[in-house]
Design a protein that fits this description.
Oligomer: single chain
Shape: globular
Number of helices: 27
Distance between the termini: 63 Å
Number of strands: 18
Length: 713
């Protein structure tokens, strides 16, 4: 290609400093022109920019304006079609506007009532899904028909209940009645923390809560959805009963997506070993499951010469594999990650049917476009980001000349060649793990504040078992289960899962296997992702310029704001940054908030270890923090404590509502009370270098959005 011509080769030694800008521009122009067949690949990136813009707004945009934006940009594109450079800019703007309008359309389409305050009463509704946890409790999603104190217009579309009542039974699809406590979806535990309420909004969840009583079935399950859910539960129960123990729970999760029954310590081992991704039914599972289907059908048909020589058995196998992947999607619960994986694998098999390359960057871009149009909210989730980052990086790597020479090298398949084939297979897993790990490492660190140091070792040891034993045996078990002949396949699958868990336990026991890292600002992640896309989507030498934003992103990774005081959404937990930079907690509970704060800091301490260190003194009326050279801070639990603390502390944080007169008479420089947290949610306080106090709240950062409760003034 002309664009492959390097800058020095073009201009040689005659290039002067005066000519440099023009030469660089000319080189970039030629490189860009040489990549014309890759422009399509950037459409998802610009759509993502539009979706990201929607989620970053502090207000909900006007629906009609958002819908008009693509039309206006499309008109601009048509008007500029004769000028290539301007047309490309207009096309980028059009793709961005399409992403923005898709997000607005999605939010408008799934809008449903959200509970405004906690309520207790009698709930009548249809069970949409049911999972059993390791402790025997039930996690159920119910579509309410009625609830005490709510009109039909106020009823949420779906609620999620934790049913811990002994001997409770709930069949999917049944209409049940039970006593329950419902609450609005929780707000973030810190202003910059994970917003569960936003996720719940796009899932149609208008409330969460727990049951006081056993569900009483008042109408039997009906409909295709109910039958599918019962089939899913029956498959999970069969796997758990035959395989047994933790291995049975993990095996069921790999097929049905029910992860609630997996013990927390096992999940932690899998995370530390870098193989927790095995539990999320996504691209890996779809490839192994549908790929096994494809290979098995094609191999079986190839044994019949009359068919193999006269008919396109490869296309037949691809069509059957699509059906198999669709069945897997149905019994797995249809999570968003699984839907993405099904879409990608379906596009691949359709490409096979149409005699197109099955795995190409263009197919991945097409899948990303469809997912972003279908579920725009997927963009802000770690699952979408990690799955597409891994696939894009792997395709870019295996598209390279070096990888092509290695993968297309002739190999023998005799007995004498087996050691070499095994070594090649191990090397392939290692390279795949390295590339995928490098592509997803920053995303995982941003969302989960953790890095699996020995993830390569964990994947090299575990993935051959998953690919050769676990998933093929899962497919065999599903095919044999209707005939009662699945026990041998389940035994083999259980052995493979147990081996995988042994690997996870061993790797996680190595020193420093799971390392927490401090939170990063969003712009650091965006720089790293932009650099990765630049290096992956382009093919000419200028792609290596993508290393620059990656380096810049990593350089500013630790620059996220580190507040001096953190208060959770109802002031039940407070953290203060001590002189040594670590957080001191007023208590170890609420446990979830405490763990999230420590994880955000990259702090390995448990909430119990971080609670009430030496500078923090607590009694029945609250806590007080005092350390030389720092503000004296009081955390008051009663009005009497507020009155006393106002005379001693520089800053007072009260769990109670403080009357205006007491606020006016308070001698502290700064006071926050219950009303502040009721209106604004979780709060962080930072002491600026100029002596001022900066307050940032969850309400301030979340803005006025549909998923944000409208409370107070």
């Amino acid at each position: 290609m002309a664009g492959a011509e390097s800058f020095p080769e073009t201009y040689g030694t005659r290039l002067t400093l005066r000519d440099m800008p023009a030469a660089v521009c000319a080189w970039i122009s030629r490189s860009f022109a040489a990549e014309a067949d890759r422009y399509f690949l950037w459409i998802p990136a610009f759509m993502s920019a539009g979706i990201g813009t929607y989620f970053s707004l502090p207000f909900e945009p006007q629906f009609w304006l958002a819908m008009a934006a693509p039309m206006a940009c499309g008109l601009l594109l048509w008007l500029l079609r004769r000028w290539p450079a301007a047309a490309l800019c207009a096309a980028a703007l059009f793709a961005t506007s399409v992403g923005f309008s898709a997000a607005v359309w999605r939010a408008e389409r799934i809008a449903a009532p959200v509970l405004e305050r906690p309520l207790s009463g009698t709930l009548v509704g249809r069970a949409k899904s049911v999972e059993k946890t390791g402790t025997g409790a039930l996690l159920a999603v119910i579509a309410p028909h009625s609830f005490t104190g709510l009109t039909d217009e106020q009823l949420p579309a779906k609620v999620r209940l934790n049913i811990r009542v002994r001997d409770a039974v709930l069949r999917p699809g049944a209409v049940v009645e039970l006593r329950a406590r419902l609450m609005p979806p929780p707000e973030p535990v810190s202003p910059r923390g994970f917003d569960f309420a936003r996720q719940a909004w796009f899932q149609g969840l208008g409330a969460v809560g727990f049951a006081y009583s056993k569900p009483i079935e008042i109408e039997a399950p009906s409909g295709a959805d109910a039958q599918l859910m019962r089939l899913r539960m029956a498959i999970g129960d069969r796997m758990r009963s035959v395989i047994g123990g933790t291995s049975g729970a993990v095996a069921a999760a790999l097929v049905t997506g029910e992860r609630a029954g997996i013990p927390d310590d096992v999940s932690e081992d899998l995370r530390s070993a870098g193989i927790y991704h095995v539990l999320a039914i996504s691209g890996l599972h779809m490839v192994l499951f549908a790929g096994s289907f494809f290979w098995g059908i094609r191999a079986g048909l190839a044994l019949i010469p009359g068919l193999a020589l006269r008919y396109p058995i490869k296309k037949w196998a691809a069509a059957v594999a699509i059906l198999g992947a669709s069945f897997y999607l149905a019994i797995s619960g249809g999570a968003i990650a699984t839907q993405r994986a099904w879409l990608m694998i379906t596009i691949m098999f359709i490409a096979v049917i149409l005699d197109r390359p099955a795995l190409s960057m263009r197919n991945v871009a097409l899948a990303a476009i469809l997912v972003l149009l279908w579920r725009p909210e997927s963009l802000v989730g770690a699952g979408f980001q990690m799955s597409f980052a891994a696939v894009v990086a792997l395709i870019a790597f295996y598209e390279s000349d070096m990888a092509r020479r290695w993968t297309t090298a002739p190999r023998g398949y005799g007995v004498a060649d087996w050691p070499g084939l095994a070594a090649t297979y191990a090397l392939g897993i290692a390279l795949t793990s390295i590339v995928a790990g490098a592509a997803t490492g920053a995303i995982a660190a941003y969302h989960f504040n953790r890095i699996a140091i020995y993830g390569l070792a964990g994947n090299i040891a575990a993935m051959p078992v998953v690919g050769i034993v676990v998933m093929p045996m899962a497919l065999a078990a599903l095919l044999l289960m209707p005939f009662g002949l699945d026990a041998p396949a389940l035994w083999a699958m259980g052995w493979g899962v147990e081996t995988m868990l042994d690997v996870a336990e061993e790797v996680s026991s190595w020193g420093g296997a799971d390392r927490l890292v401090p939170a990063a600002p969003l712009h650091a992640l965006l720089l790293v992702v932009l650099g990765g896309l630049w290096m992956s989507l382009w093919r000419e030498r200028w792609r290596f310029a993508g290393a620059l934003p990656i380096v810049l992103g990593l350089a500013v990774w630790g620059s996220a704001p580190r507040p001096d005081v953190l208060i959770d959404r109802d002031a039940s937990l407070v953290a203060v940054r001590m002189a040594d930079g670590k957080l001191a907690l007023t208590a170890s509970r609420p446990d979830y908030a405490a763990r999230q704060w420590l994880r955000y800091e990259g702090d390995h301490r448990s909430p119990r270890d971080a609670a009430r260190p030496e500078p923090m003194k607590c009694d029945g009326d609250g806590c007080a923090y005092a350390e030389d050279g720092r503000y004296a801070i009081a955390f008051s639990a009663t009005l009497d404590a507020v009155a006393e603390d106002c005379t001693k502390a520089d800053i007072v944080i009260a769990r109670v509502a403080v009357p205006h007169r007491m606020k006016d008479e308070c001698g502290a420089a700064f006071l926050l009370d219950w009303f502040h947290f009721w209106r604004n949610g979780a709060t962080e306080v930072t002491f600026a270098a100029d002596g001022s106090i900066v307050v940032v709240t969850a309400r301030q950062l979340r803005g006025e959005r549909p998923w944000v409760q409208r409370l107070g003034g």
